[in-house]
Amino acid sequence: MELIVNDVRQEVEAAPDTPLLWVLRDHLGLTGAKFGCGSGLCGACTVHLDGTAVRSCLMPLAALAGRRITTLEGLLNEGGEDHPLLTAWLEENVSQCGYCQGGQIMSAAALLARNPQPTREEIDSAMNGNLCRCGTYGRIRRAIQRAARIMAARRTGARKEGRAPVDAMAAS
Amino acid sequence: MTLSRRSLIRKAGGAGGALLLGFPFLGRARAADGNGNPASSKEDFRPNAFLRITPEGAITLQIHRAEMGQGVATGIATIVAEELEVDPTVLQLELAEYHPDFRSPRLPVMSTGGSTTIASNYDLLRRVGATARTLLIRAAAEGWQRSPEDCYAEEGRVRERKGRRSASYGSLVAAARALPIPRAVSLKEPAQFRHIGRHRRRLDDRGKLLGTTPFSIEAGPADALRAVVLRPPRIGAQPTHLVSTKARAIPGVREVVGLGDHGVAVVAEDYWQAHKAVGLLEVSWRDQDAPLADSKRILEEMRRAAANPGRTVRREGNRKPLPAAQRGALLEAEYHLPFLAHAAMEPLSCTVQVHTDRCEMWVGNQAPDVFREAVGAALGMPRKRVRVHSAYAGGSFGRRIPPDFAVEAAHIARQVAGPVRVMWSREDDIRHDRYRPAALSRLRVELDKQQGVHRWHHRIVCPSLMEQALPPYVHTMVADWMPHRVGDMVGGIVSGKDFTSVEGAKQLPYRFDGVHVEYTKFDSGVPIGFWRSVGHSLNAFVVESFVDEIAHAMQEDPVAFRRRFLPPSSALRKVLDAATEAAGWGRAPAGIHQGVALHESYGTQVAQVVELSCAGSKPRVERVVCAVDCGRVINPDIVRAQVEGAVVFALSAALYGRITLENGAVKESNFHDYPVLRMADMPEVETIIMPSEAPPRGIGEPGVPPLAPALANALFAAGGGRAHSLPLADTPGWHGVQPTLCLGQWN
Fold it and tell me: Left (φ > 0), alpha (ψ -120 to 50) or beta: where does A98 sit?
């Protein structure tokens, strides 16, 4: 079965009902998506499927032929400048244990791609599926707002220099 | 990733394979030798077990405590870097293997817990950095034929005070290695601190955010098989009959391993295969003769036990009842609290490889020496032959203290060639936890007609943690050959006097006229363990709620009441004043109801004000204002983060936390029926850190105990009645509000 993961075609041999989470972790060595509940309740496994945030623990392999999957590694390891979400997360000292944060960042990226200037209520609503047992929600909120500002500034900067605005979400 | 894991397993020849993709050793470094000496070469400068500096100037620091999110890696590195005169970011951090020098100065075990890491290691770590600095300065001074007083260290170089010469630490390594270790070293004056006490970013988070730092669930050889355990469906149930034909038919399944009364494990090439195969095992279970564990019955039995006197743990002051003429109200109350799960974000896992005469494991744990001792004993190997590679843990809150899940993994791994990673599902994690004990308290107090409080009497009924938790520690502290009976006996002896059961109650800070605290040990038959703030999580709720009941009975403001009975210059009164001042106690806007609580635990004093709004019929925690006195602070932002995290952790438990036993089984299983706080429910948290030059004290746990009573007190102030038990979701005053659920949410 062929998947497109982070723009790379991958050949995967696994049972068709294997959730994408375990395909990524056990077969492709991509451990950025984390196991937290296996039931779509915690968001630690969040990846992008054709640009939309999904819970990979609930996505069977059989449904993914030819679909474009972006993981945390693909979103953040683009080379060059740090992704605005990474910068914001580091500057706000968001992370405690860090286990949920990859999923948080993936959900935040999907939010900002469709809503570049979310209100606090919109952030809470979009992020409500991502649990954090270390209690970093307040910092996550601030980091999303900070990332939104960074991305807006980059778009403005690009326009001022006469360049086409760079889509910071290009990985999706 | 160019090489798939499946192809690795196949290359290794399946079950007989020995392909170990462990730790690559570069260049001429000698491999870590499994006796606590990490990889290093003869040319490196190693003044102690903590630090290593190469001739190229690379500095490696062993982090000898478990990093589970509390920030100890950053804290430890900051302290050492300060005295070593380098920026903390240049240190390469390694999670340490066991070494005798890494044991606690207070207890000869290399364990993390009790909010002790910074407090008990502060001086030691300063000396670690200062010793290296002193030797490097001496090495430079000798090379320049100057006295060490004419030189100083700064930013990784030694410089002359009056002169232009300087030398990098790397260039001084060879000379420093030849110098004798000084017995005494001078430490920096706090006024000179560049890093301690300053805000800084964590040192371990970049890799975690990028997904490159392995957690426990990823640690160890890439070709490890995966194992899932079918656990008894009821406490005490034993397997009598196993049919594994269907399970073995799942492609990728390698072994089915019986674990005696513990259950049955399936070992497979990947997690999903093991998980599916476990679902196809056919097992009959036989229950023992004892009654099945049941929450209602446990509560009734604790009530009956509370009718009789317990063992007195504190009795002082007035014992005589008030004369009739002076009597005011007599207040009595009964409180009870449920079992609670840890529910850390990362479910448990443990990777083990058993060889004929040695064993290696990779696991997030809170005591490498306790783990190696327990696994060694289980396998019949001397502890020196067991190697523990610690890993970052995705939270723990005390779950990774007992070595049970490592012993289980060792029993499975010994039946399989090659490494095996045993993985717990979320259902396993919630249903087979070692819970924060349930407890029941009876309180009674006599009030007189002049606002006096007499004969505070607190009777506690709860299981003994020490009875279950102490034996592995005792086994670790005594020699290999000492029989385990010794540890078990000590646990039994201590259990009747279990200090964890009465902590936070025995140390009642209020100067009432007569205090009597009693404890009755109660056996619930339910596995129990350490849960963030331990006995304080039980007793602070009871004490600070009942204190509020007294204040209201006297029609006195709860803050004024507390101030009246706390010693005037006490740290507790100061944090109370700081928190209530910052929260504008008594001046909240309409619709906001305030509750207060204070508590001291692990040496640290905390006061919290919870503000509740009741717009419509749904109460909401809007803000929590905390004042904390934890001595000198290494990293203020990490202290704030710990307080925020403790508030969220405690709030989840207070609102929703409940483990229900029915017919011997835990009812709850995942986040739909064991809900925890989500972002929409997160309050604003303000933290006031009391300035202090006193030695550092603990902060990992102290933010937890006062939250539940402050919240219950706010609920009472809002007219929601007095909560005598938790969670509040079960309390009528909370209007039966249920937590929000998120099932497969799509953005």
Answer: left
Q: Do A124 and B5 touch (CB under 8 A)?
A: no
Shortest Cα–Cα distance, A122 to chain B (Å): 10
pLDDT at position B17: 25
Band of residue A35 on the pLDDT scale cut at 50, 70, 90 = very high
Contact A147, A155 (CB under 8 A): no
pLDDT confidence band for B468 (50 / 70 / 90): confident
Residues 32-91 of A with CB under 8 A from B: 32, 34-44, 52-55, 58, 71-73, 76-77, 86, 89-91
Q: Residues of chain B with pLDDT > 90: what percent?
A: 84
In angstroms, the separation between the Cα of residue B446 and the nearest Cα of chain A is 40
Q: Which of residues 641-670 of B touch A (CB under 8 A)?
A: 641, 644-649, 670
Q: What is the pTM of this model?
A: 0.93
The pLDDT tens digits for B588-628 are 999 999 999 999 999 999 999 999 998 766 789 999 999 99
**Å from B677 to nearest chain A CA?**
8
| Interface contact A110-B68, CB threshold 8 A | no
Task: Judge whether A2 and A18 are in contact, CB under 8 Å.
Answer: no
- A148: amino acid identity, one letter: A
Q: How high is the mean pLDDT of chain B?
A: 91
Q: How far apart are CA A94 and CA B202, in angstroms?
A: 9
Q: Looking at chain B, which residue has its C-alpha nearest residue A60?
A: B272
Long-range contacts of A57-60 (CB under 8 A, 24+ apart): A57/A19, A57/A20, A57/A21, A58/A19, A58/B744, A59/A19, A59/A20, A59/A21, A60/A16, A60/A17, A60/A18, A60/A19, A60/A20
d(CA B602, CA B535): 11
B150 vs chain A: nearest CA distance in angstroms? Answer: 39
Q: Does A131 reach chain B within 8 Å, measured CB to CB?
A: yes
- The reply to whether omega before B705 is within 30° of 0 (cis) is no
Confidence of residue B38 (pLDDT cuts 50, 70, 90): low
Residue B155 φ/ψ, nearest 5 degrees:
50, 45
For an interface test with B, give the residue of A18, A35, A61, A101 to mutate (most B CBs within 10 A): A35
Supply the ipTM of this predicted assembly: 0.94
- Better-predicted residue by pLDDT, B610 or B472: B610
Closest CB to A128 among B70, B208, B679: B679
